[in-house]
Prior knowledge:
Strand order of the largest sheet: 3-4-2-5-6-1-7
Mean pLDDT: 84
Helix content: 40-55%
Number of strands: 14
Strand content: 5-15%
CATH class of the largest domain: Alpha Beta
Amino acid sequence: MIQRRFSVEEFRKLGLSEAMLATIARKGFSEPTPVQKAIIPFLLTGSSDVVAQAETGTGKTAAFGIPILEQMGTPDGRVKTLVLVPTRELAVQVAGEIRSFRGSRKVEILSVYGGQPFGVQRSAIKGGADIVVGTTGRILDHLEKGTLRLDNLSCLVLDEADEMLDMGFIDDIRTILEHTPEKRRTMLFSATMPREVISIARRYMKAYETITTVPLNKSQQLTDQVYLEVREQDKFEALCRIIDMEPEFYGLVFCRTRVETAEIAECLIKRGYGALAMHGEIEQRDREHIMRRLRSRQITILVATDVAARGIDVSDLTHVINYDPPQDPDSYLHRIGRTGRAGKKGTAITLVTPGTQRSLDLIRRTTGKAMRRGTIPGAREIIASKRARIAETITRGIQKQDFAQYSVLAAELLERADPLTVLAACLHNSYGDELNPGIYKEIRTASPTKECTTHSRRFTPRGRPRPANAKTLHKHGKTPKKGSRP
């Protein structure tokens, strides 16, 4: 058996140790990302603070995690590095990524966040931790209770600083910074550089270098940005048509409120889609379960609010759907930045109603993004696409010749009816109403250019369901057979 060997020569040029290169090879990496090329040598060869503009999903964690591990002395269980992140999901993700690079090093890496029992975290910290990754609130709790000491801290990382400030964590950050030694190295990473982020850098960091690794709009160049004009009461129907038109749909649907998020997810489940909701009232254990199901593609649609989705990093998302346009341009860029990554194309679709036209206009003016106007897929167009996909699937099955166990039954069925009737019955049994255009409600033409309405009506198909909770969503979370529509 030939085992594939990964060349790490490009990583070798960054000045990494042989042990780290071996770890990188085992992970299957052959070439550093632009972020890693810019930041790793700087952190390895210098000692000054750094402010880096880098987006999520660009290899940023490895860019600071690898140098931290390379420069760490003999581990002694006292916290040497603290990484602050905006969300619980990101704390788990960043800690796991750094842990994957430690190799044979006896470095203890701990994630600390709200939703976990405080006593369990206290025991883990007491048992020794060299690197702690945590959310600001829970880190502050441990500092105030004396269960976490930062006397030996040599490195502080503020990851996704703009997100932390947007979420109102500025006071927590300042308090935590007051608990850290003056002689420390500080690294600040942010996708955007608003004044508040620069203010933190100027006040709490020594003379620092600024590194802009990739222009903010770089990933959006691979994202096809579309807006669809639709009436408020037709938005859900439009969403279903978008999903049905894409055979490999794997994406995020953004809503403005917790209630709407739960309702849309429940309605999608009732229509046969593998979907779940993510909002602020879902407990941490359930959030982790939802994310595992999304990453393993047990579900392919996550309906979320902006706050709940912060820190979520899922590879290979094909779509971002703005069910409601965000309130500000930065939120729009953060949303659509979750697709079109790692050289892969993505699609970002914004549903715009007469009541949200002004929000879209502001986003387009401020970001300078060239959004094209799209059209909502028609029922006949969707049915034609589905028919072609079904035919392709069956043709592949015929070519594989892996249906011998059904040959006897097929012969029996052909004795009872003609081949066309038998095949049509089999298709209906497998695909239900998938090819029935009647499952799609009529969508009337919208006119967003008219004067904006002062309020909007939320449309929920076939009656208003009760707001869904995590238990309800998990109960329905299995992907039903598509076509079993109400």
